[in-house]
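Hi R.,

Here's the chain you asked about this morning:
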Amino acid sequence: MQLVLNGISKSYGNNKALSEFSATLTPGVYALLGPNGSGKSTLMNIITDNLKADSGSILFAKADEPPKLAKTLGVSYREQIGYMPQYPHLYPNFTVEQFMWYMATLKELGRAYKGKERKQYIEEQVDRLLTEVELSHVKASPIGSLSGGMKQRLALAQAVMGDPAILILDEPTAGLDPKQRISIRNYISRIAFDKIVIIATHVVSDVEYISRQIILLKKGKIESFAPPHELVARMDGKVWQVTVPTEQVTEVQRLFRVTNIASSEDGADRAVLRVLSDNQPMPGASVVSPTLEDAYLYVFGEAVQS
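And the predicted structure, written out as tokens:
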């Protein structure tokens, strides 16, 4: 299976949202990281065929065959896509089960079956998906009565319905508690063995251990396309721990990129700072192990702070 993106570009007036974006994706999880305005949403909407690119092409092959242009595949390409938007528009008066049946109808789920066989097939699919996202206990509840986290899980369930080959998830763990985030993260990782899964998120820890590749997108261009461990390794020797009197914290922030501030455990009037710097920022600073979040902030720190 392959999804090939060749030179995708898109502008809104004078704003270049995407510039010559190219990548070849095969089954696995790809994390799409970047600050607001980096082009993530534009890219996802182009892949889902909700938005037309100004230039470039998308090719897709589900089996071991030469990829074909998505625009010539038409409906058969769009049927391979499951999409979970960041702000899903759900129907508050529908029950959870009614909404899933509605989406099953729109996707023509089980069209190979007829009558009772099709109804049974859809029932089995709906029950299985609601169980997997831990919503089976509220399937008779109106969507309007659900918590934000439940609505997120329902949006994920409808995206997975129909077993799409390409799954595009925009902030899939927003509003979830830590236990639910881990559960959904493991679920996504499990189903990604035979799917191309693209996750756009600001929660870097959610993708650090399940992504085969991290795409860092900056001002519409690929800043980096590499496995998580490689991005983390690039930060070796660039992450420091510094302990300073609390009155010096503002000055250190002015001079360096500070990613974390904590009170000293000894109870003294001092702060322990995590600092990103190519060189030792000050005497006494010690190197600490980097994380993917450090790599993200190293590349996007100015954009994140602005």
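The mean pLDDT is 92.

Let me know if you need anything else.
M.
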